Amino acid sequence: MEYKTLLISKKIGFDSILLLLNWLSNDNGRSWLRGILFTLIVGLFFFIVYLITIGISFDLLYQYQDYVIFITSFPKLELEKYSCENNYWTVKLVIWLSRIFISYGVYQTIVAFRKYGKG
User: Which residues contact 68 (CB under 8 A, 6 or more apart)?
Assistant: First the structure.
């Protein structure tokens, strides 16, 4: 409840963004399932952006395996069949941002699961 009051009372800044991300990613440590969903959705978002930046149209039925490789292949995160397109700075930026947000989702899932296990 405090986070809602703080979120409303503060100007949009670093604290507000962190509170919002924490609420979105695991409901402030109360939902490990939300952490898993956050990680999968963020991973799918960045996978689509990754494909767009290398000029490939997205079709989940045909690229499901590539999505799984993209979301689970830390620290490499680059799909070998698209390796010739991975040299552009925009692709590197998307890969870098996806590493940050997927790692954040995994961390938030673990935090929420630990709280869930104690309760």
Answer: none
Instruction: Give CA–CA dist 63/51, Å, rounded.
Output: 10
- Dihedral of alpha carbons 10, 15, 18, 23, sign: negative
Which tens digits make up the pLDDT trace of 61-111? 888 888 888 888 764 555 566 666 667 788 889 988 999 999 999 999 998
44: containing domain: 2-118
Q: What is the 3-state secondary structure (H, E, C) of 17-63?
A: HHHHHHHHHHCCCCCHHHHHHHHHHHHHHHHHHHHHHCCCCCCHHHH
Closest CA to 77 of 49, 96, 52, 57: 96
**What's this model's pTM, rounded to 2 decimal places?**
0.78
CA distance 10 to 57: 41
Write out the two tokens for 43: 């991973």
